[in-house]
């Protein structure tokens, strides 16, 4: 008997690679998965497993799509929190994007990648004084302020440094959006931003405008993650532009920039119908145009900050299959050589993934599996439901799709597992862009 939460029927072809889910350069050649023209067996032999393999052409093409779809008068910034490495920041900036960072660490990576500081935006709800100083010394393009204390702190540091940072004020619109659902509530029970409903956002604008050492650029709003439709953005943009209209009436100042954040959804499984980027961006532009017209405001430059939408689909995690255990006919547990330390999203948010047998094709019948890691946690699940061929054997390679965002960046050393490396593939060549950790790396930190 199948378990109550079993997935829909097995796919017609267990070897198929659903185009929406896998990197654009993924193919099966002679039954074997190839990424960027390279056989996954060779990648595993050269770099070990688990390993994250990132298709550079896929990242670049998605970055380009956002820029082209959003238009020359708008701005796209890559949210580095999704995955932050020098190589990726170079690729996206070469494609015309800016970069959002939210710590001094991410800022250091961006600066060492050679990203033009003017294209960097610093976020964060608790920026350290050292990070503010670091950002100002570098001359970052924008700083998003998040609290009254921070406005004062920023003014103090700007004064001391003799600079005038361009400031966006992060507002909390009461809109929370995930996939197809959004909630538009009156209360804003979260740590980020200034509440619109309480009047804190209006007050933040007053305080920034009263400090000549800060340049007020505009407003910022981020409403959620893995969003598939523009409904939530519509409500958020309307609320933010109502504030812009009040600012205009009270201070005679029009906002020059409106940053609508990130959160655009991608397909993790064939059930997900992620919107086309051009439809999403056209929807956002139309909302802003309509709302500005309704409020009699000049249109600000609009910015979006996709992270997942750019890096998520480009990357595949390769694991080697270890123990295979059939649990009383309920399902088969397939253990791999990584787990929640390289992908916490399944345990953390019940995320769904797609995986295939990658090192060969198989005509064996489908077997309902749960792909699990090797950590001492029963919640250590990588793919909750997956049909794999019944002849799966230890030593086979499994590939899990769409692991580019919030996997390596949320990775840990739980159970003292070294974190996996990240390998970039392009036109038949592979190179490590983040080195695999070794046990020696971990032991070196233990100085007791
Ligand atoms: C302010 C801000 N911008 C952009 C993003 C990127 O979101 P996503 O990767 O879902 O596009 C986030 C994610 O949390 C965020 O907090």
Keywords:
448 residues, alpha/beta, 9-stranded mixed β-sheet, 8-stranded parallel β-barrel, 24 strands, 29% helix, globular, binds pyridoxal-5'-phosphate
In short:
The chain is of the alpha/beta class. 29% of the residues lie in helices and 27% in strands.
What does this protein structure show overall?
The chain is α/β, with parallel strands linked by helices and 448 residues long. Helices cover 29% and strands 27% of the residues. The protein has twelve helices and 24 strands. It has helices spanning 40-47, 56-70, 86-94, 104-112, 129-138, 148-161, 200-209, 231-251, 277-295, 308-311, 345-349, 439-445, and strands spanning 27-29, 32-35, 38-39, 51-55, 75-79, 98-101, 120-122, 142-145, 166-172, 175-179, 181-184, 194-195, 215-220, 224-227, 257-259, 301-304, 315-327, 331-336, 355-357, 366-372, 381-389, 397-401, 421-426, 429-434. The strands form four sheets. Strands 4, 17, 18, 19, 20, 21, 22, 23 and 24 form a nine-stranded mixed sheet that branches. The longest helix has 21 residues, at 231-251. The protein is globular. The N and C termini lie far apart (52 Å). The mean pLDDT is 95. The site of pyridoxal-5'-phosphate has 17 residues, from helix 10.
